[in-house]
Specification:
Elements: E1 7-16, E2 22-34, H1 42-48, E3 56-61, E4 75-79, E5 94-98, E6 104-112, E7 116-120, E8 130-141, H2 144-149
Antiparallel strand pairs: 1-2, 1-8, 3-8, 4-7, 5-6, 6-7
This protein binds zinc ion (ZN).
Zinc ion (ZN) binds at residues 149, 151, 153, 158, 160.
Amino acid sequence: MKIADNHVVTLNYTLTDNDGQVIDQSQDGSFAYLHGAQNIIPGLEKEITGKAVGDQFQVKVPPAEGYGERDENRVESVPRSMFPEDHDVEPGMIFHAQGPQGETITVTVLEANAEEVKIDSNHALAGVELNFDVEIVNIREAEQVEIDHGHVHGPGGHDH
Ligand code: ZN
């Protein structure tokens, strides 16, 4: 069986940056996703197409096919009043905000004083070249309901 759209793929992966630092990993077969449904970043999904169980390979994903390039316009100062009054706001803190399309945006505080907070709303991995070590663990046909929902149900997926 070769991986194609509407397959549920279970894989082990290690994600490192170009300095070899581990950013994320799943080595216990607990990660599953629906292929062809944009559950994972495009540059990785593309390389997985056509692979089979037991295949091990490395994928280098440029920022444009990962989490995008850094956008310096996303570094900006906003009024302190946009943050909860009863919550400390200090450099390095991470807040979740809602974007224009209702999506969740992660905001990192760079500087803060009583009036203004300088934030960076770039994705933490924006501008980072991603190096994946991948091993395909399992492939199965997706259930119709999984295709309808656009994600995997059961082990490694949604539970609802
Ligand atoms: Zn679902």
